[in-house]
UniProtKB/TrEMBL annotation:
This is Peptidase S54 family protein. It comes from Streptomyces nodosus. Keywords: Hydrolase, Membrane, Protease, Transmembrane, Transmembrane helix. Residues 69-200 form the Peptidase S54 rhomboid domain. It is a multi-pass membrane protein. The lineage of its organism: Bacteria, Bacillati, Actinomycetota, Actinomycetes, Kitasatosporales.
Length: 238
């Protein structure tokens, strides 16, 4: 995960406000570029009477559509479809990316895979499934629990706010919603939760070890309480 972490290295502690702003700027441009690509694909798809969606949709049990798992999130069935996905995709994608773009790209591949495979294995036959909603649910799940795995105060607060504000999304990750691929949503959500664990910040061995009786911690030693105080200070709470 070199280059993808939002920290200076394993056990290096939280980044400063300047680096957070720099990472957020990169995340913004990554998501802006991603949205441009999605909308350009939609224009081409619309001009071709949605032939791309028919040709590159994921169909359960058809081996030939397995590679389309990575293409399907860029495709939609209508302008209403892409418009309903665009806002949540940008917001959750940005929040998922601002801790490291390389990590975000790995997460995106994982979520696209789990979402597409859930459709491929369990969807009813003959249904062509496309759309970015699987990614949205994956990013949502990742953002909600990432702070818990990373033990990062700011991300934990963001996850709490997102969970409280968008809990209604979970209602379309269960069976029964007409015209919606709940399997793609559920698969993406599971991928996001797995990604929060796989792409968590890993501290070096002994980074959180208690100080010895022989004296105070050596300069530069990791101190979880100092990390917490620094984050509270960055938020203006201390």
């Amino acid at each position: 995960m070199s280059g993808g972490s939002g920290r200076g290295g394993a056990g290096a502690g939280p980044v400063g406000p300047e680096q957070m702003i720099a990472e957020a700027r990169k995340a913004f441009f990554v998501m802006f570029g991603f949205m441009v690509v999605v909308w350009l694909v939609q224009l081409a798809n619309y001009a071709g009477h949605y032939a791309l969606s028919r040709h590159y949709g994921v169909i359960a049990g058809e081996v030939g559509t397995l590679p389309d798992i990575l293409a399907a999130p860029f495709l939609h069935w209508s302008w209403a479809h892409i418009e309903s996905n665009s806002g949540p995709l940008f917001v959750f994608g940005f929040l998922a990316a601002y801790r490291g773009v390389v990590r975000f790209l790995g997460l995106s591949l994982l979520v696209a895979g789990t979402s597409g495979l859930a459709v491929w294995f369990f969807e009813r036959g003959g249904v062509e499934t496309v759309g970015a909603s699987g990614l949205i649910f994956g990013y949502f799940g990742y953002v909600v629990v990432r702070g818990l795995f990373d033990r990062h105060l700011i991300d934990s607060l963001i996850g709490l706010v997102m969970a409280a504000s968008f809990a209604y999304l979970l209602t379309v990750a269960v069976p029964g919603t007409p015209g919606v691929s709940w399997l793609a949503h559920l698969g993406g959500l599971i991928g996001g939760l797995i990604g929060a664990w796989l792409f968590r910040d890993r501290r070096s061995p002994g980074a959180g070890a208690a100080p010895s009786d022989s004296g105070p911690p050596a300069p530069g030693a990791h101190n979880p309480r100092a990390d917490l105080h620094k984050e509270l200070g960055d938020l203006g709470l201390l």
